[in-house]
Every structure is written in structure tokens, then in C-alpha cells.
Amino acid sequence: MMAGKKVLFLVLIGLILPAFFTAAEEEENFAVELTSENFDEAIAKNNHFVKFFAPWCGHCKRLHPLWEQLAEMMNVKDEPQVIIAKVDCTQHQELCAKHEITGYPTLRFFKLGETESVKFKGTRDMPAITEFINEQLNSENEIAHGEEDNKKKTEGGEVPAADTKGKLVELTEDNFAKHISSGNHFVKFYAPWCSHCQRLAPTWEQLAKTVQNIQDVSIAKIDCTVYRPICQDFEVKGYPTLLWIEDGKKIEKYPGARGHDELHAYVKKMLGSDAGQDAAASTEKPSDEKDKLQVLQLSGDDFAETVADGVTFVKFYAPWCGHCQKLSPVWDQLAEKMHSVANPIKIAKVDCTASENKKLCIEQEVEGYPTLFAYKNGVRQSEYDDSRSLSELVAYITKFVGHDEL
Predict the structure, then answer these.
(1) Is 194 labeled as catalytic in the residue annotation?
(2) Is residue 321 annotated as a catalytic residue, yes or no?
């Protein structure tokens, strides 16, 4: 009888576990699911970046939210340049064997019209993955843009020059350096396949029209899939990146909301307009309020020293990440609250898109944004993956120093 119960228990487990993993995978469903039946037909119609995975694989489960975030960005309805997809190798073993999948997850890029796929071998973070996609798409985009440029030259057309201030300027390797060499410039670094860039495009056009009578600033854009070296020089890691440039030098990355009013207010603020100072309140907190918040901006140089003593709660983020932007005001509130206790808890953040922080984020096993880790006397705790409400964050972090409530 006991043996029969044991067999029944194992059978139930066998039925429950696949259902559990399937439910976990279907929490977000932006990535296109490919099967043995539709795989060849799909990749014959478009570029595909495919995750071959097994539901039980721990690395696959950690990659899942980043992969779905990537799919949400790129799987646009109108003419996507690459489709983010996935194949469950426990369900389609022959298909995975055909593509030489020997470990999970394996990420392969299938370029339209080519028989061989390219395996992704980098770190599984958003900057590395998007850079890889750029590399795969870059050759075909260069051909397309080259043909367009040749057509312009043949027809006597010219690339917009620096005297088009106040209008949206399309920058290239031919006019970029000269254009930004003097004056103020608000530049959008983008990729055509990026859905956030596509949503911003009409607003950016509108902004250019709004400031067309202001001679002190130009609104411009540059395609990073074509002019990659320029974007690398300006340390662009995600799209869109909006940079304020003065006399050829990057002043800062725009940190606020991407609505027309917020962008316009930012332009006026950067130009020193008093009206802009008031209007920009929604995107930039007064300096005295910033000081009160006490959020520590850490880098690879001071990270180890900062977390070595006491308790530090660190947010690893990317400025372009929507979830990070939503968390930002809550993180500020948390910092202010922790600064008011008798034994302050340090609240910090690390920008993983900054070149000097990339190694740090890899070492700390950051695979998606935002990632929240608490450190006690230099020892990293398990990743915080609960609710990101202020009350829950306070309850979590205060347990390390014995505060019952604040």
C-alpha cells in the first residue's frame, strides 16, 4: 500500500511540475514561441533571435524576464527588423538537436536569407545583447543607407548641415563632428528596430518644431545601427539615449520623462531660461531636495569600500529601463527614510550601462533591470524579488539592523 501511494505521489508530481513551469513561462508572453512545425517557415520571413531553453533550467529562468523585456521592445507590430523568439527544447528535441543545442539557454541569431545562425557568446545583460543585435543588423543597414546616400549624391542632394539649427537634423559620420563642434545640441541616439525609439519619434519631431525659433539649440538624431563608432564614443548602451551636448562635449544624459512638455522644459532649463526652471520641476528635483534623499551613486571604483561596512541596499539599473524609471521615486523615498534612522542604512544605485560599471555588474551577477541586492558587511544577500512598494522595501531592509518599524 505504501509503495502504491509513493508511485501515485510521483505521478502527481510529474503532472504538476510541467504545469508549474508552463505557467511561469506564460506570465509574460512577448517572445514568440516557435515549434518544430512553424520554425522553418518563421525564420524564412524575418530575422529571428531565438532562445533555446528548458523550463527546469535555473539560468533560463533568470534570463526569462530580460528576454521578455527584450521581446516587448522589439516585437513591434509594424515591420519588425528582428523577432525575439523562444523554443522549448523539452518539447522539440529534434529541432534543438538539428541546431546543435547542447546547453541551456542557447541564444542564436537567424539572419534572413542565410543558412547558418550566429551563436551569442556574450554576457546575458541588456547592453551586451542589444550590442550583439546591432552587429547582426549592421551590415544590412549599412547597405541600405549606403544606397540611400548614393542616391542623394546622384540627385545632387546633401546631408543636412549645421546651419539647420532649430529643425530636426539627421546626423551621419560626415556631418556629426562638425555639427556638434559648437553650440548646444539635444541628440537622440536610436536604433530603428527599438519600439521605445519608434514611440518617441513623433514627439521628437514635435520638439524640433517647438524650438525652431530658438537659435541657441539644435534637435538632432543619429542611427546607431549605422554609425556605431560614434555611438560607442558617446558610451551609448541603450536606446533611445538622449544626450545634451555643448561645444562638442557631452554634458549629461537626459534623465526625465519623454513627453513633449518635459523635453521642452528640459531644453529651456539647459539654455538657462527662468521659465524652464519652473517647468522642469517634474523632471528635475531641486538640488536641496536631492541632498536630502542621500541616494549614493556607486561605481566600480568605490563599490567595495561602500558596502564593506554596515548595511547597504543597492539598485542595479539602466537609465532606459521602464521598470527602473518607475522604481526611481520610490528608491528616493526609501533613501530619505533610511537616512532618518539612528543607525542609517545606505541606499545606493549603480548604472550598469556606464562603461566603468560593466565589469562590476557582471561580477554581481546582474542579469536584468532593476536588480536589488542587500549587502551586510560586504556580504551579498539573496536577490530581493518581492513587491517594490515603499512599505515592503522598508520592511525588508530594516530586518538586517533590527528596526521593527520606522
Answers:
(1) yes
(2) yes
